[in-house]
Specification:
The structure is a single chain. The protein is of the alpha+beta class. Among the domains are: about 185-260, no CATH class; about 285-420, Galactose-binding domain-like (Jelly Rolls, Sandwich). It has helices spanning about 10-40, 45-55, 60-70, 75-90, 95-105, 110-120, 125-140, 145-155, 160-170, 175-180, 185-200, 205-215, 225-235, 240-250; strands at about 285, 290-295, 305-310, 320-325, 330-345, 350-355, 360-365, 370-380, 390-395, 405-415. The strands form 2 sheets. A 5-stranded antiparallel beta sheet has the order 1-4-9-6-7. α5 runs antiparallel to α6 (about 110-120), α6 packs antiparallel against α7 and α8 runs antiparallel to α9 (about 160-170).
Length: about 425
């Protein structure tokens, strides 16, 4: 749009107005620039000069408050400066937290609490604000408020999850309270809490968290549950481990193939499924001198077998094991197929089954040597009165001699023998 200026006087007045406005703008810009430069030097005199240039700037007041507080000057001056900052900008959580910190140093707890509450009101979802609020209420002994703020941290800051859970557990020692008040219902957070409890060997609390995790009915990576199974097995909680394995398969249908059956208590006995390395599937404990591999070119049944290649050293075992829940005082039938190629040693490989806890032996098959086609190994045994978990291994007894060559195993089975088969 064009502005008509019909007379020289009007043109002169317009130009003067433009120059005045430009001067005001440049003056304000210069003040702001100088204030910014002064505030970049965090000493009291520079910040005071910046404030004189920009008296409505809450950030400079906050910086001055910090400088006064850290310099050991009059704490009341720092508090007064912070209070001016929050009056100028009550929506900046950092200002409220700085004021709370100054109140803490001054021993003014009630004012500190009010400032923390104002900080949370100003910024209720930012993790670092919630973290400071949670720690304040934790120190004050108000666990419910602390847990409520830890919930914000846990929901929004993955890097702080472990630290927050550590503090929650240290403060309460109560899994139910943490689940109810601090943990959002997410599998990743429940698994982090479960990992913490497993590391602390807290079996009952871990079982509680596991139950809540399964109750979410959401899938999660199977391997993240394996530390929990190791804890249950180590603590001889076999029934709980069996139940957890069934529950895991209920939320992760791909695990259905890894459930034992009445016909075969050994999971993945034909190695047709990928080895999970945990739970009630095979555990890979191989070493450099006994290389394990799934072989799709050599097998007895199905389309795959497990091969073990020995390099000429003296590993005592093949390095793959499986835990098998069983019943006490019960008769079982074991069978497995094995094949060897150029297996040179004075002490070959054997299938061994022992009590997982007492190591009482139940099965030790003949050793395999040389080059042989697929051969069936069988054994019948009865568990003892206290046996509820077996350990299946491929061992060498004695273990000292060197061994070189290759072994294949396939179609491993373990079946409970009923009354009709006992005679």
């Amino acid at each position: 749009m064009r502005i008509e200026l019909p007379s020289p006087l009007r043109k002169l007045l317009f130009a003067a107005a433009v120059f005045v406005l430009m001067g005001l703008y440049l003056g304000l810009s210069l003040r702001a620039y100088l204030a910014t430069r002064l505030a970049a030097v965090p000493d009291v005199s520079s910040l005071q000069r910046a404030i004189r240039l920009e008296p409505a700037n809450a950030e400079y007041r906050e910086l001055l408050g910090r400088s006064l507080e850290s310099s050991g000057a009059n704490l009341d001056d720092a508090i007064s400066t912070y209070m001016t900052a929050v009056r100028l900008n009550p929506y900046e959580a950092r200002c409220w937290l700085d004021l709370a910190g100054a109140y803490q140093v001054a021993g003014r707890t009630s004012e500190q609490e009010q400032s923390v509450e104002h900080a949370v009101d100003a910024d209720p979802t930012t993790p670092h604000v919630a973290w400071e609020a949670a720690n304040f209420f934790l120190i004050q002994g108000n666990r419910e408020k602390a847990l409520r703020h830890f919930r914000v941290v846990l929901a929004n800051d993955p890097e702080m999850v472990d630290s927050a859970l550590q503090l929650c557990w240290r403060a309460t020692g109560d899994a139910n309270q943490i689940l109810d008040q601090a943990l959002p219902p997410r599998p990743d957070l429940y698994l982090s809490f479960l990992r913490l409890l497993v590391s602390k060997q807290e079996v009952a609390a871990a079982e509680n968290v596991w139950s809540h995790l399964i109750g979410l009915q959401k899938t999660f990576p199977t391997k993240l549950a394996f530390p929990y199974f190791r804890l249950l097995i180590a603590k001889q909680e076999v029934a709980a481990a069996q139940a957890a394995w069934q529950q895991l398969a209920s939320v992760n249908p791909s695990l259905q193939a890894y459930l034992p059956s009445r016909e075969n208590l050994i999971v993945n006995g034909g190695f047709e499924e990928n080895v999970l390395n945990g739970g009630f599937d095979w555990w890979d404990e191989s070493n450099p001198h006994a290389a394990l591999a799934i072989d799709t070119g050599e097998f007895h049944g199905g389309t795959r077998s497990l091969s073990v290649t020995f390099d000429g050293q003296n590993p005592p075992e093949a390095g793959i094991v499986q835990f098998i829940p069983v019943r006490p005082n019960t008769e079982y039938q074991f069978s497995a197929e094995c094949r060897t190629e150029d297996l040179e040693t004075a002490s070959g490989t054997r299938f061994a089954i022992t009590d997982a806890y007492t190591h009482a032996p139940y099965v030790l098959t003949d050793d395999s040597l040389g080059t042989n086609p697929w051969r069936l190994q069988e054994a019948r045994f009865q568990t003892g009165p206290d046996t509820n978990l077996l350990l299946l291994r491929i061992v060498r007894e004695p273990a000292a001699p060197l061994i070189r060559g290759k072994l294949w195993i396939d179609d491993l089975r373990l079946e409970e023998i009923g009354e009709d088969r006992r005679h």
